[in-house]
Amino acid sequence: MGQEPLPPAEAVALLTGHTGTPTAIQLLSDRRGSRVWKVQGPGGAVVVKANDPDGDNAHEKAAEMAQEDDHLLRLTAAGALSPDYRVGAGTWAGGRWLAVNWIDGAPLWRALAPARSPEGDRATVRPRLTGIARSWSESLARMHAAGWAHADVQPTNALVTNDGRAAVIDYALACGPDDGHRRVPYRGALTHTTAPEIATAILATPDDTHIQAHPAADIWSLGASLFWCWTGHRPVPYDDTTDRLEKLAAITKGTTTALRDVRPWPFPAFEDTLTACLAPDPSDRPTAKELTTGW
What we know:
It is a single chain. By secondary structure, the protein is of the alpha+beta class. Helix content is 38%, strand content 16%. The protein has helices at 9-19, 58-77, 108-111, 113-116, 125-145, 196-204, 215-231, 244-252, 259-262, 268-277, 288-291, and strands at 24-31, 34-41, 44-51, 86-92, 95-101, 105-107, 158-161, 166-168. The strands form two sheets. A five-stranded antiparallel sheet has the order 1-2-3-5-4, with helices on both faces. A three-stranded antiparallel sheet has the order 6-7-8. Helix 5 runs antiparallel to helix 7. The termini are far apart. The model has no long low-confidence stretch (mean pLDDT 95).
């Protein structure tokens, strides 16, 4: 077995001034042309992302890295993102790197494991479930108020912290005001949480056409993510072996599995809000601001 790749030296040098000399470096992910590390120092931990310089899509991933940094700067300037989140970014011999502060939280799927159990209807579970949904809505509401859509709302992009709040991460695909001319074209994100209108646009346009995601698409994706992680079932049923385009075609129909057929236990108010988020017509969905008090 070969040695695990290390983060770019340029990133580590900057982080030394931020958190001190690294005491531990852990490779978290190495897939699809991108690498992610957790770098721990005496003063805290950060996440470092970089493109794989040997990957077939090295140029594309480097462009995405630069794009996410641009998004973080613009979202921070708009007041939609805490200035403490972004640490730094730059170039290296292999392309681009980006560093953000580490968020200590559990992935949504793991955080909602107790709620998926038939015995999950307990006094502590309901407020935790609604608290996660509400805090996720609050983060999206700040973005939407600034004219942005996250455009990649899915279970892996929400970390649940110890106080039960959802922290949003990964802004590479976000769609901001009038940015279609200067970005990597957006062609959707995770298939299972793709809103019907985005799926329709993907199927109707060439692969190099940018699709501008809007806040209402985030709401469908939010509902789909919570539906999936609470019930254990994706909202639109299809076989895992189905081609992506066929999955998108199924999503365009706007039909989702009835919650009452897959819920682990009854939660009428929560179910009603999830169902509203998954409305086929974007104009029928609640806004993120409305959801901050609607769960």
